[in-house]
Amino acid sequence: MKIFKKIPETKPITPLLDRVSAPSDMRSFSIGELEILSDELREFLLFSVGQTGGHLGGGLGVIELTVVLHHLYNTPYDNLVWDVGHQAYPHKILTGRKDKIHTVRKKEGLAPFPTISESAYDAFGVGHSSTSISAILGMAVGAQKNDSNKKHVAVIGDGAMTAGMAFEALSHSGHLKPNILVILNDNDMSISENIGGLSNYFSRIWASKIYKGIKKSGASVLKPLPQAYHLARKVETQMKAMVAPGTIFEELGFNYVGPIDGHNIKEMTEVISNLKDFEGPQFLHVITKKGAGLDPAESDRIGFHAIGKINSIKSDSNLKPKPKYQDIFSDWILDMAKKDDSLVAITPAMREGSGLVDFSKKYPDRYFDVAIAEQHSVTFAAGLSLENKKPVVAIYSTFLQRAYDQFIHDVAVQNLDVTFALDRAGLVGEDGPTHSGNYDIAYLRCIPNIILMTPSDENETRLLLTTAFKHKGPAAVRYPRGTGPNASVNSDLEGAGIGKARVIRESNSNVVFLNFGALLDKALEVSEKMDFTLIDMRFVKPLDHEILKKYLSKADYFLSLEDGSIAGGAGSAVQEFCSIESIDIKSILFGIPDRFIEHSSREEMLESAGISVAKILDRLKPLLEK
């Protein structure tokens, strides 16, 4: 493997890679050619991501694995599913999208994750983790019923394997025993003495056809003798456990092989080519280095998980960056933890993204990263609250969807004192519909006992986080990805009154504009141009009944603006209120329409959703001129 000291700034020369327009072009390559192809692919990936920004570390770690899989399997006929998809950039390059890789995450460009509508080689759409094994199990069972001889492979990372869904799928696979291969891409340990030597030797034996033949014939002889068969099976499992960590997978019904070096093309080709023809569920444990082949990335795997554009990094290096909403949360939770020693923080593998790095270092005994286990994180918080702790669950809005039952059943029904900090609410930009937190208002406001808040800037975020924390019951604060208007932040820890809105602008107009959340600057611009009264509602639940009655009872129209779905959203809540209170008023709701908004910049997504200033004004003028 060629090692690069830095990300190349000029397009590399890649003669072998240029010959690959589809995986079929590389199936006749020798091991030596595959190794050269891997080096060229790594250099091209480094250059491409350096130009566009995006996910880098995971892709670098699976270069060799990607090359071997497409060399050995008849994709796209055979199903190859990449869990999550951060690691799938090399896969996209080898499957006919090399010349478009510079468009990844851009409007009308390549999606940041495998997407079935983009390519036949993307066997399953992925964005959230830990779905790959369930997907290939379904594919394998369906293909079997269709008398198909397709192969089915899932590549899942060690982080994604921490989710309960992955183990549910493993358990079901062990019961059904389809012909599938699960590859665990383990990049959380170094390639040291567990690769090579005795471990490597046994891995090759377990993946050999001779061993499988002996095992099969031995099983047929011993099965009529249950005690002898059980003893032989137990001895085999214990022998494997002495040199490899695969016992749990064997117990779930898989044939475990590994660990093997995920950067050794010759070894992977030998092992996987044998596993292709084995009957039943196979589990291959591959050790890789995240960021492999780039010196700085190998040293800083977290920092190089995703990068910005090289040129923008250089040009912006002397500018003081505005704080992100996650930074506001980070400062707040440190201050609140100092004041209240009952506070504990929980996150499902989102320490960096949610702003809990400093907290985890300062209060390690009050910090819990539960890995990719969103359901567990919520019920764990519920249990903590019953022992007089005050849990704060820091979770992306889109990931809380995975713990909806726990939110209702374990927190809300019991009216437990848990605070939810919902990062990445609304349209997130380049990661697209899988990561946009569009539905939290709709799916949370219908739940009894919940307090739901939508801060409009950085100061309001801190204020409402305090309000949520001091409330004795379930409370959620949703805020967007990235930076806000750079409002001055008051450092105290005083909260707002529950359900109290604030009037931003008053006019004699018969139109009242109600803002919910981080698009207040757009609502203000429209209100000033059209001379509307503007109210920042702050709370979706409870609504400020007093202020709504005061202003809506004498208006002809109310407008609502939210960075969330119109269906079931905050504007809908106001319509329901007006119906209950018999307030006769027309309404125009602005928010995310009933369709998925494809990846692009956040501003482009807002434009597509019809909630840019220009789009709002275009829609309002003819309606209000009547």
Characterize this entry briefly.
This protein is of the alpha/beta class and 626 residues long. The protein is 42% helix and 15% strand. It has 26 helices and 19 strands.
What does this structure look like?
- The model is unreliable at 189-199 (pLDDT under 50).
- The strands form 4 sheets. Strands 9-8-10-11-13-12-17 form a 7-stranded mixed β-sheet, sandwiched between helices. The protein has a 5-stranded parallel β-sheet with strand order 2-3-4-6-5, with helices on both faces.
- It contains 26 helices and 19 strands.
- The chain has 626 residues and is α/β, with parallel strands linked by helices.
- It starts with 30 loop residues before the first helix and ends with a helix.
- Helix 1 packs across helix 3 (63-72), helix 3 (63-72) packs across helix 11 and helix 17 (374-385) runs parallel beside helix 19 (404-412).
- Helix 22 links the parallel strand 15 and strand 16.
